[in-house]
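Reopening this ticket.

The earlier resolution said the output was attached, but the attachment link was broken on my side. Pasting everything inline this time so it's all in one place.
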Amino acid sequence: MIKFLLFSLCWFINVSLAGSNAQDWAKLTTPTLESVPQSIGTYTSGCVSGAVALPASGKGYQVMRLSRNRYYGHPNLVLFIQQLGQMSDQDKLGTLLIGDLGQPRGGPTPSGHRSHQTGLDVDIWFLLPKQLDNRLLTDNERETWSATSVVDMKSDRVDFRQWSSANEKILEMSARHPNVDRIFVNPSIKQELCNHKKPGSALWLQKIRPWWKHDDHFHVRLKCPTSNINCNPQAALPEGDGCDAGLDWWFTKEAKSPTKPIKPVPPPPIPSMCEQILRK
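Inline output:
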C-alpha cells in the first residue's frame, strides 16, 4: 500500500510538472525572485528566473506594446538596452522603439515568437523618429504605431526613403557590444552593410545574420551569461564577415519560397527546471 501511494505521488508530480503550454506561461504576471538570475534552456525552449522589467521609458528609448507584458528579461538584456539607448541619445541618432523582450518568466508565447524564451532576446524597431524631440509617446501611440519596413521587397534593396546612416550606426553599436551573440536582420539589410564595409568591419559584421522577415526591426540575441550553467548557447558563428556566397543564397528562389513541412513541427519540450519555475 505504501509503495502504491509513493508510486501515485511520483506519477502525480511528474504529470503536474510536464506538458506546460504557451497559455500557461502567458498567464504569469510576475517574475520569480532570485538572488542570481538564471537563463535556462535554449532560446527556443527555455525560461528565465529572476528576470527584471525594463522601465517603460528611459534615456534614448521607449517600450512599445506594453499591453503584451513582454518587457522582461535577464538583467544583462535590460542593461544592454539601457546602454544602447544612452549611446543613441548621446550621438543624437533618435529614440529607440523597443518591441518584445520576453514574458516575466520567459517560456513560449501564444503568438509572435518561437524564441525570446530565456530573457536574452529583444526586438528593436528600425524606426528612429528624431521628430519625437524627447516627447513621451502616449499609451495609444505605443499600442497602435506600427514598425516601418526599411526594405523594398520588389527590388530586394534597402528603401532609402526609410533607411538612414543612423540605422547602420545603431546596428554597429549593438554588434560591438561584448554581450551580443548575434543580430538578425533582413538579408537586404545585411547586403547593404556589406556593400560599403570598411577595414575592421568584420569584427561586428560577423554578428549580423540574415534571416527571413526582419525588415522592420532587428532582433538582438545576447550570449548566455557565464554564470548560467543551464543556459544552452547556439553554435558558434561561421568565420568571416558573412559577405560571401552564403549571403547570395538568401536572394535565390529556394530561399524566397522555402519548402514547408507537410505537418507542423511541434515545439521542443520545455526543460524540467522551467516547469518548476512555472509553478513557483
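Reporter confirms the inline version is readable. The domain at 41-254 is CATH 3.30.1380.10 (Muramoyl-pentapeptide Carboxypeptidase; domain 2). The chain has a mean pLDDT of 90.
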